[in-house]
Design a protein that fits this description.
Number of strands: 0
Strand content: under 5%
Mean pLDDT: 86
Largest sheet: none
Helix content: 40-55%
Radius of gyration: 13 Å
Low-confidence stretches: none
Structural class: mainly alpha
Distance between the termini: 11 Å
């Protein structure tokens, strides 16, 4: 299976390729923020070196204002793509 993601616009592109330890993004509903937030850690994971067992390990946190917001946006998007 091949998944290809291209950020839609300058703001999403800057967020997606940002390597800062902490970053955030905001914008209008339907602008692709949740999709960019899902693919960003995936991009970093693919860039990491595998350990001795051949596994790539990472820890991430994606934070929303409330749990219902997290569940209906970011988690829904994650399940849609991955």
């Amino acid at each position: 299976m091949k998944i290809e993601y291209v950020p839609a616009g300058k703001v999403l592109d800057a967020f997606y390729y940002d390597d800062s330890f902490v970053s955030g993004i905001r914008g209008p509903i339907g602008s692709g923020k949740s999709t960019a937030a899902a693919f960003r850690p995936f991009r970093h994971l693919l860039q990491s070196e595998p350990d001795r067992q051949g596994q790539r390990r990472a820890r991430w946190a994606i934070i929303r204002n409330t749990y219902p917001e997290l569940k209906t946006t970011t988690i829904k998007t994650w399940h849609q793509w991955f």
